[in-house]
Specification:
The complex is a heterodimer of chains A (about 375) and B (about 325). With about 375 residues, chain A is mostly helical. Chain A is about 50% helix and about 5% strand. Chain A is globular. The chains are: A mainly alpha (about 375), B mainly beta (about 325). Strand 4 of chain A pairs antiparallel with strand 21 of chain B.
């Protein structure tokens, strides 16, 4: 639908990913210098100029599978490694968090404020590194240039496009359940109380006018909720108070990041069935992906000593268990694409593959980078 | 005033799209058809009035070719003309028209979609029957396509393109009171909140243009010469169609309104929004004084759901049905 959705989706999901990784790095007591390197490497890759150029071009949203590939790549932009189960969990948390934020935005335009909250936090992560800081600032400018002129209707179209992307996702997230913003059936709580959006009046007044425009009568009705007046509007500039808390880091206080795999509704399984198009990763999407990933310059990993693995679960056993027990309908799809065949058909992807197999460095404990990418594509 | 009845389960959940519920009552067969859009699919249910028989069907959006990405559907609505009923489905690629039971596609109109995506999205949205033989469909550019529909068969032709709106069309509606006296028989709305009032015919005539206030009008109805419009601010406004005089303003909802419907025989108005609430109002026209009264009658809260479609199931407003984002059911309410 809206061709301007991808940058917002990417930046907000990326922001959530950074919040989660930051929390896990601290929880696992990774040395500060290594942790900082990971965060910096990921952020500089996220805001790579060529990559952003591709991202901001008008285009349809990618499928969940294609976007997952991009984030897999991003998460491995540094010396940190994640196993499949941890990567799955990371992606679940990221997507449910942003789904929550999109649903709870009082106005569609507030999605931009949520994006700025993520940007503000990212800026804070790299405040000591001027080169990366300037990349972040440049991204602010691009966001402001593209989105501030849009009308409310156009923002609603973006929101509707995002909601189609998040359709039927009801993964239960521990933090959300504890804070009572998500029900045990995985659906988010939508309160009928609190401040109304900026520009909206508290529902209650019916005004009748005469033909000459004078108010003839006014009546109140019972709105069935408990609303109060709107808060002031947040700032849409590079600096400013965003007012909304949506998009700020909810993991700052060290809280476990569990997700519950059970209790997914039947409809999500049905959804997967209906949406399984005959050609799951259409040629068009492969081309787009190639262009996007081509811009994702990945750091060559250092020697095996500096690499380390991050676990999104409390123990290695839990991580293994999670991989085995993940319900089919929640897998990010195992498409039987013959990666080699498709690569030959797609010159761009082949070129990217070529770039990797040249590198002599081996990522710690795994096969070469090229194989990683191939494995990822096969695992799509 | 109303109580909840047994819901109808549908195959997929409803997508967050304006006016995402189509209802067609087939009295001779004691059936009602419902349509709910999910991404690139229209879920159709045929429900017998005795509540015993439900049959399901799914319609896909038409892809020009397999290699391109799927075309998302923006809206599906029934158009009831004197001679026939059609189901119209609008998507990013074009407009499909089916026989009302969804069995046969009788017409396809492709939109001009650019080779590479442009900043301005391309899609069709806003569907209404107009007068005796026209079906009007809106486009993202603001244009309105007028199709001439014969009483039988598939010889549907594009009769006219109306270019008055400058922003994407959101919704449109025809005069539903059945009164022959109303001059205006079509109202169209856009993303800027502008409303255009038309008289249909071989050449459609623009009778009036009511300016917006920089806020999308997502749902619109026309009844007894009165435009009833729902906005993204949660407000409902009633205008006299031909003159543009504002009759009433209601601060109706705390979030973006997604659907309005009117029961033409009783003047009941249904409004539904992202705020989880469906509200029932009563409109009373007093032609002598040229005034309108709006009274609030009832609220229904669909807990934790952003409502995307709400329609009366009959002309009196005895029953209504509701759809919500991520919900795989059509919720029904009946007067107590």
């Amino acid at each position: 639908m809206s061709s301007r959705t991808l940058p917002l989706l990417f930046i907000n999901l990326g922001g959530e990913m950074l919040y989660i990784l930051d929390q896990r790095l601290r929880a696992q007591n990774i040395p500060a210098d290594k942790a900082k390197k990971v965060m910096n490497d990921i952020i500089t890759t996220m805001f790579n100029k060529k990559f952003l150029e591709e991202l901001f071009k008008p285009q349809e949203l990618y499928s969940k599978k294609a976007l997952r590939t991009v984030f897999d790549r991003l998460a491995h932009a540094s010396i940190m490694r994640l196993n499949q189960a941890s990567m799955d969990k990371l992606y679940d948390l990221m997507t449910m968090a942003f789904k929550y934020q999109v649903l709870l935005c009082p106005r569609p335009k507030d999605i931009l404020l949520v994006s700025f909250n993520h940007m503000d936090a990212i800026k804070d992560f790299v405040k000591d590194t001027p080169t990366i800081l300037s990349q972040v600032d440049e991204t602010y400018r691009q966001l402001i240039e593209m989105y501030t002129p849009l009308s409310h209707g156009e923002f609603q179209l973006i929101r509707q496009t995002l909601l189609i992307f998040f359709q039927d996702m009801h993964i239960r997230v521990s933090i959300f359940l504890k804070d009572k913003v998500q029900n045990s059936n995985g659906r988010f709580v939508l309160p009928t109380s609190g401040p109304v959006p900026h520009g909206t009046q508290v529902p209650s007044l019916i005004r009748i006018f005469s033909c000459t425009g004078e108010e003839l009568s006014r009546q109140q009705f019972n709105n069935g909720g408990n609303y109060n007046a709107a808060l002031r509007e947040g700032s849409f500039e590079i600096f400013g108070d965003r007012v909304t808390k949506l998009g700020t880091n909810m993991y700052s206080v060290s809280r476990p990041v569990e997700t519950h795999m059970s209790g997914t509704s039947k409809s999500s399984a049905q959804h997967t069935k209906v949406n399984a198009a005959p050609n799951p990763l259409a040629k068009e999407e492969l081309n787009l992906l190639a262009r996007l990933m081509g811009g994702l310059e990945v750091q060559k990993p250092g020697n095996t000593d500096s690499g380390f693995r991050v676990n999104l679960f409390a123990t290695d056993e839990e991580e293994e268990e999670a991989l085995i027990s993940r319900p089919d309908e929640l897998s990010y799809g195992v498409i039987n694409i013959q990666a080699t065949k498709d690569l030959q058909a797609n010159a761009e992807l082949a070129k990217i593959m070529g770039e990797f197999t040249e590198s002599g460095d081996q990522s710690p404990g795994a096969s070469s980078k090229g194989d990683d990418l191939l494995a990822m594509m096969d695992g799509l | 005033m109303y109580h909840k009845e047994k819901s109808i389960q549908i195959k997929n959940s409803a997508s967050a799209l304006y006016n995402n519920l189509g209802v067609l009552r087939i009295a001779p067969r004691r059936l009602t058809y419902f349509t709910v859009v999910h991404a690139n699919v229209v879920n159709m249910v045929s429900a017998s009035w005795d509540g015993l028989n439900y049959s399901h069907r799914q319609l896909q959006s038409k892809e020009p070719n397999v290699a391109t990405s799927t075309s998302l559907i923006m809206q599906a609505a029934f158009c009831a003309l004197p001679s026939r009923d059609l189901l119209v489905v609008t998507s990013q690629k074009g407009i499909q028209m089916y026989e009302s039971d969804g069995s046969i596609m009788v017409y396809w109109h492709a939109l001009d979609t650019p080779e590479t995506p442009t900043e301005q999205a391309v899609f069709a949205r806003g569907i209404s029957a107009a007068w005796e033989n026209y079906i009007c469909v809106g486009v993202s550019s603001g244009a309105i396509l007028v199709f001439d529909v014969p009483s039988k068969g598939s010889n549907i032709t594009l009769s006219e393109v109306l270019e008055e709106h400058k922003e994407s069309i959101t919704d449109m509606a025809s005069e539903c009171s059945g009164s022959q006296e109303c001059i205006a028989n079509l109202v169209t709305a856009d993303d800027g909140g502008s409303l255009c009032v038309w008289k249909s015919g071989e050449e459609f005539q623009l009778l009036n243009k009511i300016p917006g206030f920089d806020m999308s009008c997502s749902s619109v109805k026309l009844w007894k010469g009165t435009v009833v419009a729902g906005y993204g601010t949660g407000q409902i406004r009633l205008y006299e169609a031909v003159t543009g005089i504002l009759h009433a303003e209601v601060n109706a909802h705390a979030r973006w309104i997604y659907s309005l419907d009117i029961a033409p025989f009783s003047g009941l108005l249904l409004s539904a929004a992202e705020d989880s609430l469906v509200r029932v109002w009563l409109l009373t026209m007093t032609p002598e004084t040229n005034s309108v009264e709006v009274a609030h009658l009832h609220n229904e809260c669909v807990t934790d759901t952003q409502i995307c479609g709400a329609k009366f199931c009959d002309g009196d407003g005895y029953a209504f049905a509701v759809t919500g984002y991520d919900l795989s059911e059509i919720i029904r309410y009946v007067q107590s």
